[in-house]
Amino acid sequence: MSRILAESSSSTYVAMDTEFPGFLYRTPFGASEERRYRDMRRNVDAMKIIQLGLTFYDHEGVFKGSWEVNFREFDPAADPHESSVQLLLDSGMDFDENKRDGACASCFARSFYRRVLLPYRHRIKWITFHGLYDVGYAVKLLMGRPLPEGRRRFLCRVQNVLGSVYDVKYMMACRGFNQRMGLVKLAEELDVVGAAEGRNHQAGYDSLITALSFLKLRRDGMVEDKAAGIFYGLHRCGLRRMLGHYTCMSMTT
Asked: For the chain, which domains are there?
């Protein structure tokens, strides 16, 4: 944790990825944005985060570090989950080790909120890939309470808690890439996979290639301000478009 805190003070971009127990509630194809948010909220509120990956870069795109935090609270024998947990096991996840040696989620959240978000929220830009669930789990973790009802309240809470958030999948779609393309395939197309070491479906590795993909799109001319606060799947209700007619609440809301 001390290394994460140290790098936060000099970082501008923080890519984030989470691993979680899957989906208890499935969203049908073509669902409305409100339905997409409702299903995400029900899933996130019903389950526990398993792993958080964070990768830090400074404003010039210089790598500062990449970390993976395993949390101790999830127990596959007792907590709700679905078949994607097997994918995590196949990728090297050890739930017994997490339970024994993992971080306390509430302790991590308190320290991170107080020592990273409060002093540096105005400067840090958060990077995700198809990040609605990642951000949902992060906000629930950091605030220690269920997500708000309604996507507008959620988007305002995201802004109040995290600040600027970018979804690389939305940026990718804007650049004309096939929208069915996943993170690893995009990283291969952008030729950034060789700069990363790790295993797919591990949050640290996925956060690293998310950061590399974002920086490559940015270098190739993607204007990041145009993508601020817009999540793939909720793209018609991005923060910048909504805030003109919706008053956001305070950090404690």
From this structure: 1-227 (3.30.420.10)
